[in-house]
Automatic annotation (TrEMBL):
Alphabetized PROSITE patterns for the sequence: AMINO_ACID_PERMEASE_1
Pfam family for this entry, one: AA_permease
UniProt cross-references to InterPro entries, sorted A to Z: AA-permease/SLC12A_dom, Amino_acid_permease_CS, APC_YAT
Topology of the protein relative to the lipid bilayer: Multi-pass membrane protein
Localization terms from the record: Membrane
GO cellular component: membrane
One example GO MF annotation: amino acid transmembrane transporter activity
Transmembrane regions listed in the UniProt entry: 29-53, 80-102, 108-125, 137-159, 179-200, 221-242, 267-287, 320-341, 347-372, 392-411, 423-443
Protein known as: Lysine-specific permease
Coiled-coil intervals: none
Gene3D superfamilies: Amino acid/polyamine transporter I
């Protein structure tokens, strides 16, 4: 359920509308399909790693063992920063959403209340986090299923009118719109939408039976993406013309024109805006809750491995890394800036910062899996020893690596394709890249870290940290 809920969020409920408006339904489907295929290969790579070596440190542990300690250090801190900042971003989003009902309420109050809720759920126990994520996921899944069923009935004229045919889907004689750069823009948005599926790797470190449960979750990733994203875009594309100006307004401060809301209103459900607002609120709180859990666990594992201050490796009586949780929560308090500088401005800054870090995390997964499999063979092991084996190796991680590189390079093509270079846009979009490189090569220079030869990579599985 964590894996399922992790792939459903504002990227589906909000960004899908602007994607269809920019590239047409055909362009949106192609972009989301390409990213979905990349995520599928990344998840199979992560599945092979997480079932062989279940560890709460996940990316940091794999990078340190199969690439170099410097790479593991940089990937671990990048992952922590990514999700710690995501907490702040999602809290800022929640304050904007809640003002749909309480427009004159202070942002500071809501930021504090939501942050306290997330901290409490994570401070209880790992079970507390898992239980809350289960119910957050249920809300999102039920909403999407109702949307798909109702939308399909409307397409065929079974509910509320006559069949719509292909008039909206092929508006103007084609389902593609906007050209190549519009497609690239949707490609970026789709990549951000799918970020969160990699949390399976962190949760595996505390799951009851990772060698059975993780592969089962991994195997369903492709079908989840197909069902919840591709079919949703198909339904929206059939029912709402991509020229509808409301599709351009699907932002956090305009929930009333979410594409889901537009379809529900078309079906005659007058209360749809309030319902979708509540669902989107649960989505952003779910993302923030997941971010707090995963970043706390990675920070704890890094402390245990000597890559972070030792005090962050302390567990309380309930098995929660409380010091790492407190430090992560302090970063989440950046959301309080929303009340000082304006909700939308802060949210967009934090969103851009965390989005690029997510793609860097995915690059790390592809590199770690490629190195792990080669080390596994180089040290005389048989593939039959693997509890779960990723298909299509080495094509899978190589394909994912290069697609991630394209996504990173094209993060903000508009910044340098205009009449003049948008230096502010470049800084906002790409600042995470030099930050990651400074951390990586800085550790390498200070500690003298080198690439680990394949025959010396640590493949032992007995020292699992929970």
């Amino acid at each position: 359920m964590i894996a399922l809920g992790g792939s459903i969020g504002t990227g589906l409920f909000l960004a899908s509308g602007s994607a269809i408006s920019s590239a047409g339904p055909g362009g949106a489907i192609l972009a989301y399909s390409a990213i979905g295929l990349m995520v599928y290969f990344l998840m199979t790579s992560l599945g092979e790693l997480a079932t062989y070596l279940p560890d709460s440190g996940s990316f940091s542990t794999y990078g340190s063992r199969f690439v170099s300690p410097a790479f593991g250090f940089a990937v671990g801190w990048n992952f922590w920063y990514n999700w710690a900042i995501t907490i702040a971003a999602e809290l800022s989003a929640a304050t904007v959403i809640i003002k749909y009902w309480f427009p004159d309420s202070p942002s500071l109050l809501w930021s504090f209340l939501f942050l306290a809720l997330m901290f409490g759920l994570n401070a209880l126990s790992a079970k507390g986090y898992g239980e809350s994520e289960y119910w957050f996921a249920i809300i999102k899944i039920v909403t999407v299923i109702i949307f798909l069923v109702l939308g399909t009935l409307m397409i065929f004229g079974i509910f509320n009118g006559k069949p719509v045919g292909f008039s909206n889907f092929n508006l103007g004689g084609s389902s593609f719109h906007g050209g190549f750069f519009a497609f690239i823009g949707v490609f970026m948005a789709a990549g951000f939408s799918f970020q969160g599926t990699e949390l399976i790797g962190v949760a595996a470190g505390e799951s009851e039976n990772p060698r059975e449960n993780v592969p089962r979750a991994i195997r369903q990733v492709f079908w989840r993406i197909l069902l919840f994203y591709i079919l949703a875009i198909v339904v929206i594309g059939f029912l709402i013309p991509y020229t509808n100006p409301n599709l351009l307004k699907t932002e956090l401060n305009n929930i009333g024109v979410s594409p889901f809301t537009l379809v529900f209103e078309k079906a005659g459900l007058a209360f749809s805006a309030s319902v979708m607002n509540a669902v989107i609120l649960s989505s952003v709180l779910s993302a923030g809750n997941s971010g707090m859990y995963s970043s706390t666990r990675v920070l704890y594992a890094m402390a245990k491995n000597g890559l972070a201050p030792k005090m962050l490796g302390k567990l309380n009586s309930r098995g929660v890394p409380i010091n790492a949780l407190i430090m992560t929560t302090m970063i989440g308090m950046l959301a309080f800036l929303a009340s000082l500088f304006g909700d939308g401005v802060v949210y967009n800054w934090l969103l851009n910062a965390s989005g690029m870090c997510g793609f860097i995390n995915w690059l790390g997964i592809a590199v770690c899996h490629y190195r792990f499999r080669r080390a596994f063979i180089a040290q005389g092991h048989s593939l039959d020893e693997l509890p779960y084996r990723a298909k299509w190796f080495p094509f899978g991680p190589i394909f994912a690596f290069f697609l991630c590189m394209i996504a990173i390079a094209g993060q903000n093509t508009g910044a340098f394709t205009g009449a003049s270079i948008d230096w502010y846009g470049l800084m906002v979009s790409y600042a995470s890249i030099p930050l990651f490189l400074v951390i990586w090569f800085g550790y390498k220079w200070v500690k003298g870290s080198k690439l680990i030869p394949l025959d010396q990579c640590d493949l032992t599985t007995h020292n699992r940290e929970n």
